[in-house]
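We examine the record.

___
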Amino acid sequence: MNLNLTCDEEQEVESDPFPGVVVLPEYNPDPDSRSLNATVQSVSSQGVTTIVFDRPVRPISNYTLLEEGEVLVDGEPKPMLEINPVPGEYSDMESLEFDWEVLNFTSSQLVIQLIWKNAHHVSMWSKVDNIEVIIHGYHLFADLQGSTVEPEARLVSKFVPPQTDEKGEELAEIVANILLGAIAATYASTFIVQLWLAGSLNAIFG
């Protein structure tokens, strides 16, 4: 679908109740074209989320537009990208809250960093948690011929692994160092005892 976005700035100032919100034309794809498909390929244990496309796209360099921009949907402003947690059977929405930012956008993928508020709660039960990405600003995702993803395209991850954060990594490193120190101390003590026994036996038996 080829989009030709035009607007009358004076009219927008006078009549637009949502200034700054993008108003898109009616979605009317070319019947001979194929909609662009996007998929959540993976979410790492550090929250790095990779979305891939089924063919090359025209990436945008203004990441702020993706992160903070809004588009009018059914008369209401919606974020260009809406990303929500999908709780597993034993999880709740509050424990899975996160912020996010765009790390990279290329012709083949969009990479997003999830910043969990309680990383240790993510997928902590047997029923793992997931995320859902809703693309409201479909016009920002177009292939080289201008075909876009479908409006309100919903992408759901297949698996979000247990998450780690910087504090968790620091704690793990501290624990590992303590364990290594304890092991080293044990070996040293054993070696000293062996030397003492060898000396004692040598003194007794010559």
